[in-house]
Amino acid sequence: MRFNRFLFGSSLAILAAFPAHAAERVTQIPPPALDNPLADGAPQTAVLAGGCYWGMQAVFEHIKGIQQVIAGFTGRPTTSQNDGILNRGHVPAESVQITFDPGKISYGQILQIYFSVAHDPTQFNKQGPDDGPQYRSDVFYGDDSQEKIAEAYIAQLGAAHVYPSDIVTSVDRLTGFHVVPDSQQDYVRKNPTLPYVTGVDLPKLAALKILFPARYLDPPLTVSGS
To answer: Does 3.30.1060.10 match the CATH number of domain 11-78+87-211?
Structure first.
């Protein structure tokens, strides 16, 4: 059954609807063996999908070296369906566009946080209570370097058997990013007591603070700067 995060009753109902998120296990994973060295330069961009963009945005807005995180969709919109099954390649994914300072944080370090606490890379076409290909785990690379780092890191984590199940994260070329309305930006910060937020998103921030204390930024960034 598909879960709609806009329709729910209590925190207990939400927490009972899905097993503990991978981030809640608070398990450290190794850094990428292949990465770009820190170096001064123009801001760079990373685009990642891993479930609802509310939590993804909240996690990366709490990271030092990140300059901006925008929630949106990546991929081509479509209305086509085949027997009720959507084609993953044609379904936009909820995602975040991360602008970062390459002199303070590397692309590989961003991926380490992504695979550690931002989402569960072993869930196929879903994430926690959210079900459907729009919630898939997907790294959208902007250049050859990002593609190589992402693919090498997934292979590294798989070979190390970091997770109890296989990693299902896709690595796809970035073909466009579509920003969602302001009402959906900085949603966790604006709605900290919402049952979905307390049950799904705040545990990610707690795990982030435990695993990456030196990188934890408080107060967080915001899209509007307010």
So the answer is: yes
- Report the DSSP beta bridge partners of residue 90: none
Burial code (b: 16+ CB inside 10 Å, e: under 16) for 177-216 equals beeeeeebbbbbbeeeebbbbbbbbbbbbebbeebbeebe
Q: How far apart are CA 144 and CA 86, in angstroms?
A: 29
User: How far is it, in rounded angstroms, from Cα 205 to Cα 220?
Assistant: 11
Catalytic, out of 46, 52, 70, 105: 52
Has 52 been annotated as catalytic? yes
The pLDDT value recorded for residue 2 is 37
Report residues of the chain scoring pLDDT below 70.
Answer: 1-27, 76-90, 224-226
φ, ψ for residue 179, nearest 5 deg? -70, 140
Strands 44-50 and 93-100: antiparallel
Q: How far apart are CA 11 and CA 13, in angstroms?
A: 5
Pairing of strands 130-131, 137-141: unpaired
Spatial distance between the Cα atoms of 142 and 165, rounded to a whole number of angstroms: 28
User: Could you tell me the maximum CA-CA distance found in the chain, to the nearest angstrom?
Assistant: 51
- 64-90: per-residue pLDDT in tens? 999 999 999 997 544 433 434 444 456
Q: Which are the contacts of 202, defined by CB distance < 8 A and separation ≥ 6?
A: 188, 192
pLDDT of residue 20: 41
